[in-house]
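Marked as duplicate of an earlier ticket. Keeping the data here for the record.
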Amino acid sequence: MAIVLDTSALIELEKSLDRATPPALPEDEGVVLPAIVWAEALIGARLADSPLRAARRRAHLEAIRQQAEIAPFTPEIAEHYADIYAELSKQENLIPQNDIAVAATCRLLRTRVLVGPNDEDHFRRVAGLDVAVISS
């Protein structure tokens, strides 16, 4: 079974680089990065406050990318996206649109999502989504 990484999990992984025992990606599961997560992560590298930090972020991202599959936004994911958007809209409980794309990827792949501790609540609004929080 695979696990889908949200950008918040990538951020938490980056924050942990200087810790003695940083959290690791699950070794027994395939890792999937939705294309939107990859884009958000690249933006973070490009907006880093120094060239050194930008290079460090990019190297960290490339290391993760070596372990991960990047999932494109396909017509099938778009169907799930529309369903999730409609469900949350009817409940007047929308979450950020990029996170809907992440949740839609999880629904299509029938997998769980790994998030950082600050994004857990809004992912839990998506019915049937299996949410795991990265341990720091």
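See parent ticket for discussion. The radius of gyration is 15 Å.
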